[in-house]
Amino acid sequence: MVAYEVSDAEVDRIFQALADATRRDIIRQVMLAEQSVSSLAGNYQMSFAAVQKHIAVLERASLVGKERRGREQIVHGNPEALQRAARLLDAYGDIWRQRADRIGDILSEPRQD
Question: Hey, how many other C-beta atoms are within 10 angstroms of the C-beta on 65?
């Protein structure tokens, strides 16, 4: 398996969070500038509660953070968690490149009939 600094459960939470287009869009938006949950909810044709659930999934994966400021909950991106996710993807990419190289080596060996 891949050697990294996160547990299997954390890897599962990260990839589950990133598997949804709405959650990826929320990450993109809050990485550009932190936003209130209400502001984010206005960008989607779904209920406020549905957007809150998406944010909760992102929080469990540590991809975003949320803090209360007065009456609003402000969502901000977590660049360190995104970098961790990128390192995970790079590690998996390395594994597949190595496998493809080995397949290429096997296919290029002369046949022994």
Answer: 15
| CA–CA gap between residue 46 and residue 55 (Å, rounded) | 13
Burial of 82 (0-12, 13-18, 19+ CB in 10 A): middle
What's domain 8-108's architecture? Orthogonal Bundle (1.10)
Helix (H) or strand (E) holding 110, with range, is: none
Please report, for the chain, the start and end positions of each structural domain, with discontinuous segments joined by +: 8-108
Question: Inter-axis angle of helices 21-32 and 48-60, to 10 degrees?
Answer: 80
Q: pLDDT tens digits for 87-109?
A: 888 988 999 999 888 887 788 87
Q: How far apart are CA 71 and CA 64, in angstroms?
A: 19
The Cα 81–Cα 77 span in angstroms is 9
